[in-house]
Predict the structure.
Amino acid sequence: LHKSSPVWWEEGRAVYDVLRYDVLATPLGQNLLCFPLFLKGLTHAVIGFECIGPFLLFIPFFTSVVRTVTVFAFFCLQIGFGLSLHLQMFPWVSSVAMLPFLPTVFWDICFKRSRKASSSERVPPLRSSGWTNALVSFFLMYGFFWNLHNVEKFQMPTRLHWIAHALAIDQYWGMFSPYPPREDGWYVVQGRLKNGDQIDPFQGGNSVRWEKPPDVFKSYKSFRWRKYLFQKWWQDEKVLFYFARYLCQDWNRHRKGEEVLEEIEIFFMLEETLPEGEAPPERISAWKGSCPEG
């Protein structure tokens, strides 16, 4: 519902744009950029399956076969996400969350349960009550209209909002919505030591380099560092002050004399993704000053 941009529906360019998002794309994802026609078809396939897949899980006929195929299709979708994008645990957690939708027949085959058990050993089939089905149906429709409430002019009645907040189902899924990010980049930290040398304390004291890293994701110390720094904190002077203080304290903790870090300037190399290629990176000085004390 949130992916309402023409790049998903009409142009079919969304997956291509996602894989050009350097801070997330894996080497495999970057190599797929060589096949734009394939990625266009993949865009339509992904958005189409995300629309109909949830309904296939509750189809009332050929349930076992349809559910099994649908769940494994979701597995393939998540594996594709995990191989082409640095998403950490997300694809694997999402895959595990699909396991309850596998039908009894699947588990019977997996565990080779005998269908010839005696009547005294046979477990009666579990049947859900009408009230249970009604409750599940209500929450499915509630979730659908809640998402619709977030993206369209439709407004869910305010008196029903308490249900979402009380049960923590006030969901909002905005990843790559309504279109993939059009700005990314990387940080360059220019530090001056007491002896006049210039180093990049964020990159372990290496020399300052302005060119784009071969793998932008690896220019961050970890996934959490990337998550912390890539929320446009380069526009927030207060956050950058504490970031600069951390870099100074971390560097000076085990150094004295001429190797002490005295001044620091944080740059963000802003790179804009265009419909055809990428614009030259813009060097933005986000924070500059002497090493904060305390």
